[in-house]
Amino acid sequence: MISGSMVALVTPMAANGEVDYEALARLVDWHEAEGTHCLVVAGTTGESATLDVNEHLEVIRFCQERVGSRVPIIAGTGANSTREAIHLTTRAQAFGVAACLLVTPYYNKPTQEGLFQHYQAVAAACPGDLILYNVPGRTAVDMSNETVLRLATIENIVGIKDATGELKRGIELVKAAPKGFVVYSGDDATAIDLILAGAKGDISVTANVAPKLMSKACELALAGDSEGAKAVDAKLSALHRDLFVEANPIPVKWALSQLGRCEATMRLPLTTLDSKFHGVVKSALKEAASIS
């Protein structure tokens, strides 16, 4: 079972907007060295919405080849077309990823029954481990806990990334989940509390810029050390907040540029961080001792 700090990895891009594979390789190597427990590739933070299908799959393949079996990779393969989700998931599983992460179909606004049938169809076509991903603030669709628990009875649907930010709701899901089905936080600000309540890790934006601290906080929480985990997490609280002053991944890409890890380049319709927020994000980095 994958657990711990699971970085929602950015996709570095060169000044011309093309994927910067040299920078991506350096990021992957850095996370391995810093103790990140899992790489989540080509998800929301990886700008999957503006990667074409070939790029999307190549980013997944590249990262999987880079780390081999040393660090598990979860590939973002969700789509608002069930056929496309099956295609992406089938190809990613062929690369040998540990699991695939499938966001709820965005824009279409399916019913709860539509959500159930969507995931059921992907699970039937793609036998590897699948993780649900609920982030209603971005998708305009909210998968209920009841629907999640229906899906949890399908053998290869093994978990969920709960990015609702509603701690009470996440805890209820942890308590109700059947054996073998795990809950991951997708909200850095509440992640440690959810892990202390029984979740198995955090799919984290903050881990992009503070991987060692995020790994330590998750390890302590998984060990049941509430005081220790919260003490480490307190150093990250400004990052948890300020990496969302504009739409993710705009602030975290700019923060990584300040660390010399990659360019701040975004693909339209996203734009680089407004200068009025530069001081805010830089201050958060200093609080976490990511920069001096």
Helical residues, percent: 40-55%
CATH fold-level topology:
TIM Barrel
Q: What does the average pLDDT come to?
A: 97
- Class from secondary-structure proportions: alpha/beta
Strand line-up in the sheet with most strands: 7-6-5-4-3-2-1-8
The top level CATH class name: Alpha Beta
- What string gives the helices and strands in order? EHEHEHEHEHHEHEHEHHHHH
Major sheet size, sense and barrel closure: 8 strands, parallel
Uncertain residue ranges: none
Pfam families: DHDPS
Organism: Umboniibacter marinipuniceus
Subunit structure: Homotetramer; dimer of dimers.
Protein name: 4-hydroxy-tetrahydrodipicolinate synthase
Quick overview of this protein structure:
The chain has 292 residues and is of the alpha/beta class. Helices cover 46% and strands 13% of the residues. Helix 1 links the parallel strand 1 (4-8) and strand 2.
Structure description:
- This protein has an eight-stranded parallel sheet.
- 46% of the residues lie in helices and 13% in strands.
- Helix 1 (21-34) packs across helix 2, helix 2 packs parallel to helix 3 and helix 3 packs parallel to helix 4.
- It is of the alpha/beta class.
- The chain contains 13 helices and eight strands.
- It is globular.
- It has a single domain (4-225), classed as Aldolase class I (TIM Barrel), CATH 3.20.20.70.
- The model has no long low-confidence stretch (mean pLDDT 97).
- Helix 3 links the parallel strand 3 and strand 4.
